[in-house]
Amino acid sequence: MLYKTIKVRNGDMLVNYNIYKCDRCSNDIEEAWPMVINDINHYCYECGFLMDIIDSKEYLRHSGFGLMPNIKAAVHNGEVVLWTTKKPPWETPDSTYRKTKAYRLWRKEVFERDGYVCRHCGSDKDIQAHHIKPFAKYKKLRFKVSNGLTLCDRCHKEEHKRMKMGGRNERSVSNQ
């Protein structure tokens, strides 16, 4: 919607310059800026893209990102998301999470709680942090210390063999 008209100098003349309000987010849109006009409504480009009035290519071109190679845009969970990788960020492979600061902190806290020794055999060699509930399946538990257990490499491999076979025996994992 038209918010106000101001006078601006254009050479030797004063001319009218319109400022609109986005009918969705209420941000100012100066007439020289890109905007989406839909019937009687005026939308900033962000809202036009969020409302699926314009596509990602047009959004990028008019938002200053059009000249950047390999940039992509999409609406995810009600927000505009930009990325340059092959896959969008919400399709991040599980292996990427294991390289994060949060994962390193979780691993360290599990080791500290368990005294840096394997909870099955007591070894302090080749220790690893094991997810009791599988990392890929229980995403909300990935960084919960209570879902971690310190195991040596040998015991960790044995535990995954047991898990693969679908059963647990008397050495089944526990964080207690």
From TrEMBL:
The keyword Calcium does not apply. GO terms for molecular function: endonuclease activity; nucleic acid binding; zinc ion binding. Keywords: Endonuclease, Hydrolase, Nuclease. Pfam families: HNH (PF01844). Residues 105-157 form the HNH nuclease domain. It comes from the Bacteria. This is HNH endonuclease. It comes from Cohnella xylanilytica.
